[in-house]
C-alpha cells in the first residue's frame, strides 16, 4: 500500500529517486533498484480515488459517480447466487454443503466452464490453433521483472499478462513496460481474492478499479480477465461480462507458485511442464491447442519460465506457435481503444518465422502495435535472490498471492 509510512521506509532503506521514465526503469538491472519506490505522479496524485491495496475492495469508492452508475445499471440483473464465503474466505465445509448438481457452474467445485445461465459466454480454457500454446503469466507486474522481460524480448516472444490492480498501483512503470513490449494485458482483480466469496459490489469493485487503473497507467482498457485461483461462478461471470471482460482459464497448471508457498518441490513443477510437453508429442493438441497456468510471481516462477522456454519452443512447432491468448483467437484489437492492434495468428507466426530460429537474437515487434519501447541492455537472466523479497515488501512492493 502506498502509505506515507511505507514510502518513508522505502526512501530510508532503498532510497527513492526522482521521476523516471519507463525506458529508464526498464534499463535497471539491480532488483533492489527496480523495487525501490519510484515517484509516478499520474498514479501518486489519484491514490485516494482507488481502494487500498492488499485487501478486498470493500465497496465502490466515494465520489466515483461513473463506477456507481455502471454498477447500478447491472445490479438488478445480477444472478441471485449466494456468495460462497465472506470477504475472501470460503464458508467452512462449503464444498460439502453445496448442491452437487452445481447449479452455479462453480469452477472451484466442478471445473465447470460452460455457464448454466443463458446469455453468459463460455470460459476460454484452450486455444483453437493446433499445436499451439496460449502463453501467459499471472500476478504481475512484478517489480523485479526486467531480466524476465528482457529474456522474452530476446526471444521475440509476447505473452498475455494478467495484472493485479494493487501491483499496478505499486509498480506503474513495470505495467507500462508490458504494454510497450507488446504483451497483451488482462485483469486479475484488485486484491487476488476468491471472487465467489465476495458480495456483488465487491466483485464489481475488484474488476472495475483494476480496469480503471490499467487504463490510467497504460492508456488502454483491457477486455480480458482471469479469476484468481480460477474461482468463478455464473454470478461473477455476469458481472465480468457486463464490464466487457472475456474469462480466460486453463487446462494445464505448472503449480509454480506452490514452491514459494512451501507446498510443492521444483521437481513437481518440472513434472508438470514435462506432462504438457508429453501431450504435444502424444498428439493431444493436434486439433486444438493448450493454455498453461504460470506466474510472474517471484524469482523462482520467472526463472523457471526462462528455463522451460526452450523446451516449450521445441515442442510447440519450434517456438513459432507460442503466442498470446488473444493472438491465438485472432483478436487483433485487444483493448477497447482502437489505436492499438496486435497481429492475428497467421501474421504473428509469419513475423516470428521470418526472425529466424536462433535462441539469442533480439527480435522485432511482430504485427502493427502502435507503441514502441526502448529496452534495457541487460544480457542473460540474473533474477533477484529471495532475501530481496523482504526489502521489496518494505519498499511498498506488493508481491502477492498465487
Automatic annotation (TrEMBL):
Membrane topology: Lipid-anchor; GPI-anchor
Cofactor: Co(2+)
Biased composition (Gly residues): 355-366
Region annotation Disordered: where it falls in the sequence: 353-375
Enzyme Commission code: 3.5.1.41
Source species of the chain: Mycena sanguinolenta
Source species, domain of life: Eukaryota
Annotated NodB homology domain residues: 131-330
SUPFAM superfamilies the UniProt entry points to: Glycoside hydrolase/deacetylase
Protein name as it appears in the record: chitin deacetylase
Amino acid at each position: 500500500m502506498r502509505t506515507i509510512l511505507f514510502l518513508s521506509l522505502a526512501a530510508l532503506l532503498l532510497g527513492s529517486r526522482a521521476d523516471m521514465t519507463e525506458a529508464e526503469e526498464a534499463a535497471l538491472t539491480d532488483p533492489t533498484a527496480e523495487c525501490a519506490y519510484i515517484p509516478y505522479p499520474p498514479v501518486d496524485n489519484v491514490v485516494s480515488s482507488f481502494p487500498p491495496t492488499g485487501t478486498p475492495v470493500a465497496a465502490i469508492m466515494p465520489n466515483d459517480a461513473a463506477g456507481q452508475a455502471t454498477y447500478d445499471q447491472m445490479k438488478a440483473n445480477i444472478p441471485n447466487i449466494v456468495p460462497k464465503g465472506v470477504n475472501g474466505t470460503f464458508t467452512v465445509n462449503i464444498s460439502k454443503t453445496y448442491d452437487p448438481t452445481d447449479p452455479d457452474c462453480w469452477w472451484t467445485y466442478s471445473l465447470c466452464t460452460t455457464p448454466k445461465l443463458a446469455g453468459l459466454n463460455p470460459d476460454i480454457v484452450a486455444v483453437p490453433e493446433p499445436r499451439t500454446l496460449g502463453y501467459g503469466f499471472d500476478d504481475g507486474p512484478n517489480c523485479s521483472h526486467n531480466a524476465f522481460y528482457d529474456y522474452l524480448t530476446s526471444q521475440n516472444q509476447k505473452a498475455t499478462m494478467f495484472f493485479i490492480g494493487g501491483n499496478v498501483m505499486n509498480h506503474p512503470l513495470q505495467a507500462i513496460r508490458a504494454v510497450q513490449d507488446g504483451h497483451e494485458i488482462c485483469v486479475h482483480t484488485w486484491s487476488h481474492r476468491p471472487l465467489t466469496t465476495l458480495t456483488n459490489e465487491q466483485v464489481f469493485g475488484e474488476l472495475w478499479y483494476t480496469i480503471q487503473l490499467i487504463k490510467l497507467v497504460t492508456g488502454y482498457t483491457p477486455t480480458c480477465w482471469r479469476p484468481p485461483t480460477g474461482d468463478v461462478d455464473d454470478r461473477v461471470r455476469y458481472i465480468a461480462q457486463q464490464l466487457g471482460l472475456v474469462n480466460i482459464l486453463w487446462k494445464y497448471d505448472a503449480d509454480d507458485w506452490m514452491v514459494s508457498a512451501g507446498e510443492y518441490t521444483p521437481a513437481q513443477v518440472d513434472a508438470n511442464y514435462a506432462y504438457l510437453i508429453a501431450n504435444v508429442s502424444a498428439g493431444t493438441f493436434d486439433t486444438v491447442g493448450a493454455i498453461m497456468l504460470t506466474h510472474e510471481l517471484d524469482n523462482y516462477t520467472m526463472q523457471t519460465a526462462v528455463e522451460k522456454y526452450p523446451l516449450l519452443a521445441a515442442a510447440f512447432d519450434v517456438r513459432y506457435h507460442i503466442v498470446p491468448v488473444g493472438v491465438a483467437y485472432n483478436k487483433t484489437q485487444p483493448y477497447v481503444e482502437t489505436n492499438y492492434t496486435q497481429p492475428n495468428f497467421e501474421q504473428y507466426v509469419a513475423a516470428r518465422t521470418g526472425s529466424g530460429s536462433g535462441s539469442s537474437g533480439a527480435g522485432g515487434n511482430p504485427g502493427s502495435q502502435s507503441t514502441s519501447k526502448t529496452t534495457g541492455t541487460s544480457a542473460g537472466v540474473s533474477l533477484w535472490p529471495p532475501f530481496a523479497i523482504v526489502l521489496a515488501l518494505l519498499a511498498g512492493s506488493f508481491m502477492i498471492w498465487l
